[in-house]
Amino acid sequence: MDRMKELIDKLNQAAFAYYQQDKEIMSDYIYDKLYDELLALEKQTGIVLANSPTQNVGYTVLSNLIKIQHEVPILSLDKTKDTEKLKHFLEDQKGILSWKLDGLTIVLTYKNGQLEQAVTRGNGSVGEDVTHNARVFQNIPLKIPYQKELVIRGEGIISFSEFQKINEALEEGESYKNPRNLCSGTVRQLNSEIAAKRNVLFYAFTLAKAEEIDFEDSKQKQLDWLTKMGFSVVEHYAVTADTVEERVHFFQNKIEKNDFASDGLVLTYDSISYSEGLGSTSKFPRDSIAFKWADEMAETTLLEVIWNTSRTGLINPIAVFEPVELEGSTVSRASVHNVSILEELQLGIGDKIKVYKANMIIPQIAENITKKGGIEIPKHCFVCGGETEIRTLKDGKALYCTNPNCKAQLIRSLAHFVSRDAMNIEGLSEETLKKFVEKKLIQNYTDIFALEQYENVIKEMEGFGERSYEKLMESISKSKNVSLPNFIYALGINHVGLSNAKLLCKNFEYDLEKIKQAKEEELIAIDGFGEIIAHSIYQYFQDEKDMQLLQKALSYIVFEAPEAIEAKDNLPLENLRFVITGDLNHFSNRKQLQQEIERLGGKVTGSVTKKTNCLINNDTLSESSKNKKAKELGITVLNEEEFIKQYLS
Fold it and tell me: Are 594 and 623 spatial neighbours (Cβ–Cβ below 8 Å)?
């Protein structure tokens, strides 16, 4: 198994370099040799892992997740924070102590050596069928040598490092608070391509059913056997009442080095027969208990709240307090996450607060004792001085810098500038842009048009060569002929999507000078524009730095003639308003569908009103508030297929 995993990793790295980075890190001869070795090992062991290059697993899109009744209910565990209770639990029995992984519990069923079904825990009695996504997890075996029915339980997780990478790439408002939420949202996606890209891992922790295998009355031997079948098994150790406390400390000392979230440990009896004889209460199984970390709490004094601007423009409040010792380290800062939590805590300078480490890792404020309040929400970004605004996201209110040229947002704004509906420059991924910025080849969007002066530097960079450099230069050259709406959209003016950019250009006869000179009242008069959009556009074209960059960009760019734009810019959804709700099939998420509607001239709003033309909901018979409102107002409710047929065909 170790050799198979090593081969899979090497072959996948070589394939990624060849197909995605246009470079060769392994000769065809070596690749074929390793591939054949892997294929032989898969035949020898009867095990095929989901991410093996020998598999060509297609992506699946479902219309909805099917509810599945669990054959045996999955009960939650009784909990303790006292190691003495663990000793009392074991008494003279041998036990197994393992991580309590903080992810999504999934039940896998295999028949005839093939993965047949994967179901989430759900409410313990009924879960959701996520087999289409389990097939693209990084480490789940699609095929095993055991031919009879096998049922196992385990945890789907996303690592901290992967969580950070994914969250940074998500659209504004779509980010997740922690890896567990991201994993849950990923596993329950209808489109398996999303799960495949997010590197979900599965760790088995219980063997629920395996016929005709003698495990010698030992759960330890069950886990050993699962490892031989190709499964990744949660880290675990045999313990007794005399050794369990020492092993708990062993786990505690590993937490800060882990790349995965854990909210405690699980202790279970090793004896299968003893466990089965105990049965369960109405709430908990009697053979297992969860050990939760006893959060060490410290009282301290709040010194200040500083505001940190991320590269997405999100400005996070960070509490700075008098240093305290927590879980063996000195702590003096804790993220407050967003404006909603800041307001809820009623923080004020000099407040007495209680702090702890969530899961023994992340410093958090548990309580504000004195609640002085009075922390002001900054009206300007501390990085660039640009105006800030509060936006309502799914996790509450958050503060954003509205300046698209803020240094903290440079990478994100550059990625937007080169995107398909903007300047459409291929070859400038976010990772490539990061490298160019780090080497100071690009300091603002205009520098993209002068990259040829760094030809030798770029060609020597990792992932580049003669061919990829020439492709990039061709793409940049091609982008210099652009329509005015696409260019304005590329500028990243706050609240100005592509559809608004088109409306703006149309109302000012595709004349950039007229747009630059427009007054706020003229902009407000545009149908569909309001005070916020008008102010944002006006402010942008009054900013001296923005105008200097714009003037420089215009020395490179040639705008398409208005007639050519009108000819190709058919807007079938112009002046139409849509609301999107529920899960989607054809589009990967609501944001993608919204972008398509806006690209065709339509508007997407969050609530159903008398101005709404159509509600898009795959569950047209739903009794949701939006469906009810649409029916009350006589507004059409269409599923995706009906919407595509009526509006996009």
Answer: no
